[in-house]
Design goal:
This protein is of the alpha+beta class. It contains two helices and four strands, in the order βαβαββ. The protein has helices spanning 14-29, 43-55, and strands at residues 4-8, 34-38, 60-61, 69-72. The mean pLDDT is 95.
């Protein structure tokens, strides 16, 4: 079993992200593994994802060495 779970936003619409991400977050968070969301360089995608994370009370950060990823902490 992997110690990391990744949600890749590439190729997904903002509406699809709003629909799929919350379910993925709660399912994967309960497994107790590291979670990462690949947003790419789109500022709009980062805003959509960060809004979902904040609305659902997740703590998160963007690593200094890779601003195309959001890590759940």
């Amino acid at each position: 079993m992997s110690n990391i779970s990744v949600f890749d936003c590439h190729g997904k619409t903002y509406d699809k992200i709003r629909d799929q991400l919350p379910n993925w977050l709660f399912t994967e968070y309960n497994k107790g593994i590291e979670l990462q969301i690949i947003t790419g360089n789109s500022d709009t995608m980062k805003k959509v994802v960060s809004t979902i994370l904040n609305e659902n009370c997740f703590d998160w950060r963007i690593p200094i060495n890779n601003d195309g990823v959001i890590k759940i902490i």
